[in-house]
Amino acid sequence: MTREINTILVLGVGGAMGNGIAHVAASVGYNVHGFDLAQNFVDKGISSIKSNLERGLKRGSITEDEISEIMGRIKGFTDLKEATENVDFVIEAVFENIEIKIDLYQKLNDMLPNDVIIASNTSTISISLLGGGSNRGDRFIGMHFFNPPPVMKLVEIITGLQTSQEVLEITLGVAHKMGKETIVAKDSPGFIVNRVLVPMLNEAVFLLQEGIGSAEDIDKGVQLGLNHPMGPLRLLDLVGLDTALNVSDSFYTQFQDSKYRVPQLLRQMVAAKMLGRKSGQGFYKY
Ligand code: 3HC
After folding, report:
1. Is the pTM of this model over 0.85?
2. Per-residue pLDDT tens for 197-235?
3. Helix (H/G/I), strand (E/B), else coil: 90
4. From the CA of 148, how far away is ligand 1's center (Å)?
């Protein structure tokens, strides 16, 4: 594969991960096509990128001209065919649902040249499974960013059974150009980072559910006792309780091990639409 990567298509630009990935890609000089299903999702994603870039204005870490330049590299699309024109690399960050993702890859297959790689930002779904569904398993890979993508230094790269060595190297190159550190994991539920994170987050919810400590004290304990930048319950509010529940359920289904059982409180809060920051209420009020 000799394709030079100039333009990246980000699928799901309206979501927190999608707009963060588009932000990072455009900031390092890639042209970005941001796709989402409806114009209001696209507009929301693009305006979040602008307001996140503007955080740096007061501190002088970025200028108005630099923001205009970065924003000038981002185009929004709701038509998939138009969004794929002149695209050299695809990063998919849509809802964590196997059928939705595979349906999208099937549509893309007819639109993209053969040598374009599809990287999924999935946090739990098997890369071999998604690669198989994409009909381009050798050119399919996991590229797992962390929330918020403009700030978090890591990208976890996951190879599926069919992912070629060349595709791994090209994807590592894209992540490094984005200024990220990388780790490489084999396809397994939760890969490396979420395998450590998810049981820890769930344990914090069990502590609250069992009345062992207040939300504030559980967070303070982990933040100051372990030197984490934020406590686990506040982090769950940032990630989104629905996303966390989805990931936890998928762990339990895939490992069939009771150590991954999901706390009832997490399930109830999601049912009650207490989803964290995005709904204004999670373990804390926003
Ligand atoms: N976009 C762009 N920049 C952002 C941002 C965003 N969404 N959020 C924060 N920032 C920037 C700020 O502008 C600031 O920049 P500066 O250093 O140039 O001044 C810097 O980040 C620090 O932000 P704040 O001062 O507002 O706040 P904090 O210092 O408290 O940092 C935090 C906020 C970066 C979120 C920090 O608390 C943190 O690192 N928390 C842990 C996050 C984490 O663990 N993420 C992983 C989640 S797991 C995951 O994503 C995997 C998934 O599969 C579940």
Report:
1. yes
2. 999 999 999 999 999 999 999 999 999 999 999 999 999
3. strand
4. 5
Q: Which strand (E) or helix (H) includes residue 157? A: strand 154-159
Which residues belong to the active site?
123, 144, 156, 194
233-253 pLDDT, tens per residue? 999 999 999 999 999 999 999
Provide residues with CB under 6 Å of ligand 1. 52, 55-56, 59, 61, 123, 146-148, 150-152, 194, 197, 229-230, 235, 239, 247
Return the half-sphere exposure (C-beta side, CA atoms, 13 A cut-off) of residue 199: 12
pLDDT in tens, 162-189: 999 999 999 999 999 999 999 999 999 9
Q: For residue 12, name the pLDDT band (cuts at 50, 70, 90).
A: very high
At position 24, the amino acid (one-letter code) is: V
Is 91 strand, coil or helix? strand
Of ligand 1's listed atoms, the one at least distance from the Cα of 145 is 50
Q: Please give the number of the atom of ligand 1 that sits closest to the Cα of 124.
A: 53
Q: In sequence order, what DSSP letters do the residues of 182-229 get, joined into one string?
A: EEEEES-TTTTHHHHHHHHHHHHHHHHHTTSS-HHHHHHHHHHHH--S
